[in-house]
Amino acid sequence: MKSKVSNVVVIGAGIFGVSTAVQLARRGVATVLVNDGPVANGASGRSLSWLNSSRWRSDAYHRLRMAGIDRYRTLAHRHPDADWLRFDGGLTWDADGDGNRIEAAYRHEVSLAYDAQHLAAGQVPAVTSGVDVAAITPQGAIFNPGEGWVDLPSLIRLLVEEFQERGGWLVTEAGAARAVIEGGRAVGAATARGGEFRADAVLLATGPSVPQMVAEAGQRIDDSTPVSLLVTTKPVGAPLKAVLNTPRVAIRPAPGGAFTLDSAWSEEEVEIRPDGSYRVKQETVDGLLAEASKVLEGNPTLELDRFGVGRKPIPGDGDPVFGELQAIPGYFVAFSHSGATLGLIAGELLAFEIATGERHPMLAPFRPERFRAVAQ
């Protein structure tokens, strides 16, 4: 299908921005990808990046996530030896107590034909390795064989390489950028360092900054963005392959034999200073490493390699926000949690909409105007 636009500017080189830019380049659309610093320097660089559609969400969101996982399977087939994309399953259990919903979650997942196995602790070693089964609560665990993980910085580097090979223009270290609006429509982007790029359409994919940036254009996207903390260990000889989602820590393997860790409680301990910077206490990091050790077979000593801290984009109602701002033609946005799971499919569908001028039905429930309508 012939594109209805000849050039596009994408602001933000996280997974949504890079994925969309590549898809536009594949369609032959001249595309400029602008980032304030190096690529993957925002939320995409500190994401657990668990590829899943487990537990409860709307049917539309579940379908979109499953399409996202499908695109990763295609990518995995093309890169069978990649150490940054694996489908070795996911294992999850809840805390012991009245709030334990493992049985209900299992029944829900089965009702959707989402591949799930409800296992007692003693059954876990037969399906996945590296777990200290003594940590699993009496209600058991769910193993989802079809789940996986991706290292987003590695994927972004791969996509940027293709983008540039296809003639895309990457501009990094540009400082803050904004959409330029003239005559009521988006006509390009301007950067803090003086660069200006004219275009037929603009995609804003700046992660947690999206709501404030569209607010400056008089538009509304509700925002529930919290602080995130992702800890990466030094390489350790532990046999864990699945992603673990447990009451006190989530763990996934990482390239080179390391692990990445996060949790809700450790994020809540991050201190936000008056100037907007963050302070992460040593005891928080040590506590997260200790919690991870408790659920790994042999309880290995885990050492800190690095951590990343910053805002994690989550829309106010929890659902993704994708598509054109109805009030400003040519101004598209991408703002969502689950950036890893949705990364490839979101780029594909946004590029379709930008290039063709058509609205894709899978994005219908996730339009930005749902917030504008609430405000009226």
From TrEMBL:
Record keywords, A-Z? Oxidoreductase
Question: Does the keyword Oxidoreductase belong to this entry?
Answer: yes
Q: Which domain of life is it from?
A: Bacteria
Sequence ranges assigned to domain FAD dependent oxidoreductase in this UniProt record: 8-351
Q: Which Gene3D superfamilies match?
A: D-Amino Acid Oxidase, subunit A, domain 2, FAD/NAD(P)-binding domain
Q: Does this UniProt record's set of keywords contain Coiled coil?
A: no
What name appears for this protein in its UniProt entry? Answer: Glycine/D-amino acid oxidase-like deaminating enzyme
Q: Which organism is it from?
A: Inquilinus ginsengisoli
